[in-house]
Prior knowledge:
The structure is a homodimer of 379-residue chains.
Chain A: E1 12-14, E2 17-19, E3 26-30, H1 38-50, E4 55-59, H2 63-75, E5 80-83, H3 88-96, E6 101-104, H4 112-125, E7 129-133, H5 140-146, H6 150-166, E8 172-176, H7 181-194, E9 200-201, H8 209-225, E10 231-233, H9 240-253, E11 262-265, H10 276-287, E12 295-299, H11 305-308, E13 314-318, E14 323-328, E15 331-337, H12 341-359, H13 364-367, H14 371-378
Parallel strand pairs in A: 3-4, 3-10, 4-5, 5-6, 6-7, 7-8, 9-10, 11-12, 12-13
Antiparallel strand pairs in A: 1-2, 13-14, 14-15
Helix pairs in contact in A: 1-2, 2-3, 3-4, 5-6, 6-7, 7-8, 8-9, 10-12
Amino acid sequence: MIPVPRKPTRLVSAGRVPIGGASPIAVQSMVKLPMTDARAVLAQIEELAQQGCELCRLAVPDHAALEVFGWVAKRSPLPLVADVHFDYRLALGALRAGAAKLRVNPGNLGGDGPLREVARAVATEGVPIRVGVNMGSLEPDIAAVYGYSGEAMALSAMRQVERLEELGVDAIVISAKAHGVPVTVDAYRRLARSTPWPLHLGVTEAGPGTPGLVKSAVGIGLLLAEGIGDTIRVSLSAPARTEVEAAYAILASLELRRRGPELVSCPTCGRCQFDLLSLVGEVEQRLSSIREPLVVAVMGCAVNGPGEARRADVGIAGAGPDRAVLFAQGKVVRSIPAAAAADELMAEVARIRAGLSGTGDCGPERDDERPEGHHEQQQ
Amino acid sequence: MIPVPRKPTRLVSAGRVPIGGASPIAVQSMVKLPMTDARAVLAQIEELAQQGCELCRLAVPDHAALEVFGWVAKRSPLPLVADVHFDYRLALGALRAGAAKLRVNPGNLGGDGPLREVARAVATEGVPIRVGVNMGSLEPDIAAVYGYSGEAMALSAMRQVERLEELGVDAIVISAKAHGVPVTVDAYRRLARSTPWPLHLGVTEAGPGTPGLVKSAVGIGLLLAEGIGDTIRVSLSAPARTEVEAAYAILASLELRRRGPELVSCPTCGRCQFDLLSLVGEVEQRLSSIREPLVVAVMGCAVNGPGEARRADVGIAGAGPDRAVLFAQGKVVRSIPAAAAADELMAEVARIRAGLSGTGDCGPERDDERPEGHHEQQQ
């Protein structure tokens, strides 16, 4: 089975968002603004929520940021994760201000006394802690033996988790993100074998553009395909909305969750007799506001088009210089003028959506393959 | 080991490009223009070659296209693959015109007689055939039993391969691309267990934008991580150069091959006190013409930056509103004005390149991890 069934993990909750157990793989992102303009921060969270982000992290580097955090937490449409380093009082403050989850590195909060206070506070508030290890926060004695490796990350994380467990923390999420895919995958595979706590997946500092997106997709995708991972955050040097779009694309690629249509479209070649890339661009744009998990195809030629896009709910394929065919479920429905292809396709999409919204069902033959898509649609 | 060692396959050659055996995973793309303007086709191939494409496919839908193919083949900087359907005379013509490889669906060339002629011709010319199965070209009796599945694709491909072997073809490459990742991965895993012939990987009709790139990265990346795959083509509804960029990004993400620098950069957050995304964009642009496999980092804050980007050859990290630090190999070198960050970084990159080009070596401590990067650099 691809992906393999999810590895069972303990269920924890960040506000109303369940993480682990049998819950859907939760999508996270992070606000990318200085923590000075509370309204701007809230606006970015609202934009992320609209895109399907389910949990949003905010850095809380100082007490001024903590005030912004508190103001935003009262108004946020999403549960907030407070990211705190070095000063345990900021962690305590964020909990009082409404943090639904705390992301800390237990080794840098100021020693055992402060860590004990934070542990007591999260237990009281019923808030989970994410232990987030990266190459900058390995336990020095572990790094000395295991180097900067996946093994060192997993061992460092497990030691920090054990400290928290000893202090009575009973809701933990773990991450171990490196910027290299092999090291990251190695770390998470080890964690998945070592702990029942849910895992937060990511490739850190993946960078900008195509390479950043590809590293994230390969690293996170590989782990999800093995049944590892309960929540994901794609870390890109790009707007936060791009991270959320990428997260859903990764989940959709493995048919774990789908938000919106799947656009199947051919790369075009010397057989294609019209401007396929422009048509694909137009269809992509016109589908972008739709949330139903339809499969829509745009193919260059009618010879292979309907056959290759057999599972598409609806599609168009070029058929000579001026004509196209409209097809559904791998069968040609009728011939249409090429110039009207986008309009005809969208009209068919609208008809299908009208049917869908009446029944809330996209056909039993696909439910088994897209359980999360179906789930999304029912929300 | 991630990725696991490559599965051994037979070595075949498309012109000067070896596929399979111990050869590097070859990067392919396809011309996306009508086969009418030979000069435009040649120009696109030249652009792809500059980007690192190693093998380029052209559709040959008719005899006019065959003439263009012949003209281009005489001048092409890359070995060409002729993509032929339905008419075996086009396949024979493409071989005479200089095709370095033939991509066919043996089931649609017009029966046994024509297939026998094509088999004789490729054997004479010493040219490999790629058997390319997709959902539009399943063997009907196999589809009837196994449905539109990875199993049906693998079985269809193997039947076609056996036909060619019976006809004496001794150089075969196999592909089985679906537009869904799970089906594609299933098909290739079955092929890898069934045949010693090299495999050409791809997710077909992956579509445009982020979803297309992600599907390709997850599908191809997952297989490469398992040691499966000898050559790859990323099929995107996007310019062909984007396909080549994506192919190298996938190979680099698994440290199989690298072309140019790796840019490690943080996603920015509320702790960052400067416009990180603009700086990353500028550095990305200025690195784009460099081919050495340097690791360059751009980090938001100095606290975690150098530690997390420990393996970077050189990097910068923000250090307050007006300052940054320059670091190398995880250690801070010196403090610099933030406004000069990009210039200082690129000056350091230039110094490293000058050293690199003198020795042709990027340091023994990384050779074991980036054998292909090293290989690229020596070319």
